[in-house]
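Structure ticket #2291
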Amino acid sequence: MVLGKATEKQKKIYEIVLAAQKTACKAVKPGMACNRLDGIARDMIMKAGYGDNFGHGLGHGIGTLVHDRPTLSPQSNDVLEPGMIVTIEPGIYISNWGGVRIEDDVLVTSNGGQILSKSPKDLLEL
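Resolution: structure written out below.
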């Protein structure tokens, strides 16, 4: 959300993150390497010119810990398996400006991913 009317830059950054997030959610499938899933979103953000502003992994597992396995990052050796629930949360953060992160929780099924979150994806101007 943005307090006030969103600037063109805020809208642009939001749309880049949203496209990366939606693409990564659609790409979830069992047997997929977590570093490959991270790379799908990361490559989109890099191609848009903001690769240096995505300083964290794409997501993590949800379990008994806040950040559980699997880890979705460039360094991860984890592999997605049916029954896992992971966060898909790319972001762009610009020093002295702000940032955007969009997150969904995704269940890995036997043939893909099922988004469990129900939050709207519209950029809110308050």
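Closing remark: DSSP finds two helices and seven strands in the chain.
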